[in-house]
Amino acid sequence: MTSLRKKNPFGIAVVIAATLLFSCGEELSIDEPGNLVPKTVTQDASLPAIYANGAWLHSEAFGPEEATMIIAIHGGPGGDYRYLLNCKDLADNGYRVIFYDQRGSGLSQRFPKRSYTSLQERAVDLMYDELTAVIDHYRKIPNQKVILLGHSWGAILASGYVGKHPDKAQGLILCEPGGLKWKEIEDYVKESRSFKLWSELLNDATYLDQFITGKEDQHEILDYKATMMASKNDITGEGDFDPSASWRSGAVIMDALFSVGDSYHIDFSKGLENYTIPTLFFYSGRNRAYHDSWAQKITRHYANVEVVKINGVGHDGIITNTQEWNAQTKPQIINYINSL
Amino acid sequence: MKNSKHYACLLIFGLISNFIQAQTVNWQSLKDNEKHIFSANIGAEYGIIYGVGYGYKFDSKLFPVIANVEFSIPSGDKLLDDFKSKIGGNVRWIKLGKFQFSTKAQGIFRRFGNENVRLSNFGLDMSGVIGYYEKRWFVGAEVGFDKAIVTHFKHTDKYREIFPDVKDGWYEPATGGNFYYAIQGGYTFKNQEIYLKLGSIVSEDFKTKPTLPYLLQIGYNYKL
């Protein structure tokens, strides 16, 4: 043994290293649900959930069951409704306020990327059908009014929905949809993510890739990475000068819907000319990617629109800034609904 | 105790790496009396990166070895919240005329921090280079693999507001791995070299790509 050690220290080192490595005790795995990201409704039965259009969705509703429904539609794709919870205040005004995490997002059920991309441009119809199913789930009386309240991607989705189904919503409230035609969406995303090359924000988004990598449908890993990357944006204000809150990103659906949009140049303004009910359109004073001229450009897609600028906040702050929500956004929403 | 075991494991890995093996050098121009190689580089690899390195050449007619240490940081407002250190070396295994084949293996310790988490990782970077080396210049092709073997996660209060039950600690098996491919070329003058490396990075599943899927390095070597 002594002679072996003298002759081959390299081999001994390998054996010691291997022994130590394989005896390192209990480990945590990055793809185990509940380790780095919260469990979804299919992994944690205690979460509030509904079954809609073939998916288990994390969902809650507040306010009188037969009152006018306000459906809060979150951003992303791949965000969740936690940051929209100030809208719950509207239940105190007598409305039925409904929240849901879209499929593959937040705490809702996850699906493989292929389940979206294989539908090609019909992947967007899946999201519309899901919204119809959520409305149908909560509808208690046949003539119950429905008002869509969409933020960011949620506002794009709501716009596309009423363009396709103008009779299904009796009101439309939108907060800073990036764009409706694909080129507009591309331009907005580029503008809102134009971090300086040398900045800490860009570095935080890119340096992580050497520590954690996930395969195509490893949701726990990809969602965690997406949450880390989406945490802060000093251009739009998300997580920066605006308060922000979320549960869990949906990386796969975000990637899939961007991929579908890019491949088929989805036009979310299609049919909007047929939606003549007034639309309430908010944009923020501090989102540097959503200046006045951009708001003017986007609002031209709507047949009948009232445009309101919320000063002192950024993209999320229209709703997440509690002070401005109470002072500006909420009163505008209540006046709008009363005017319908 | 468990943590110290991890450190021990990976320290040994680093030492093994040192035996068998990263700077980009012109093997043909290395003179017998040049033992020390100081290097500095700037480039793009998971961010805008600034790096420095030191290598020591061991005399061997058959298999020249350069043991080295490297340290790099990405650009950003916070100086040392993220960094990467490597220890290892290059071995030139084959020389057929002007064509030469070398490999490198380096143990890695790197850190990442943002407002949500601080990660500490031990990893291993291995690659092979086939190149054509003249006294004054060289070109080569490199293929390598960077494995994040074991990673410690320590989350901030901000992330605990998002997910209060997040589990801190050592995560394994391996938390990540990326392949990289690059072409490299350099020019040698006196006891100095400048070189350029260009390439791409792809995840180990060969499908997903990092946010910045490119590799770029402009470097300078000074030999003593």
Describe this structure in words.
- The complex is a heterodimer of chains A (340) and B (224).
- In chain A, helix 4 packs across helix 5.
- Helix content of chain A is 37%, strand content 13%.
- Chain A has a single domain, classed as Rossmann fold (3-Layer(aba) Sandwich), CATH 3.40.50.1820.
- Chain A is of the alpha/beta class and 340 residues long.
- Chain A contains twelve helices and eight strands.
- Chain A has helices at residues 2-7, 9-21, 113-117, 123-138, 153-164, 182-192, 200-206, 219-229, 251-264, 292-299, 317-320, 322-339, and strands at 49-52, 55-62, 69-73, 96-100, 146-151, 171-175, 279-284, 305-310.
- In chain B, 42% of the residues are buried.
- Chain B has a ten-stranded antiparallel beta barrel with strand order 1-2-3-4-5-6-7-9-10-11.
- Chain B has a single domain (2-223), classed as Lipocalin, CATH 2.40.128.
- Chain B has two helices and eleven strands, in the order αβββββββαββββ.
- The longest helix of chain B has 19 residues, at 2-20.
- In chain B, a hairpin with an 8-residue loop joins strand 3 (65-74) and strand 4 (83-96).
- Chain B is mainly β and 224 residues long.
- In chain B, 11% of the residues lie in helices and 60% in strands.
- Chains A and B meet through helix 2, helix 7 and helix 8 of A and helix 1, strand 6, strand 7, helix 2 and strand 8 of B.
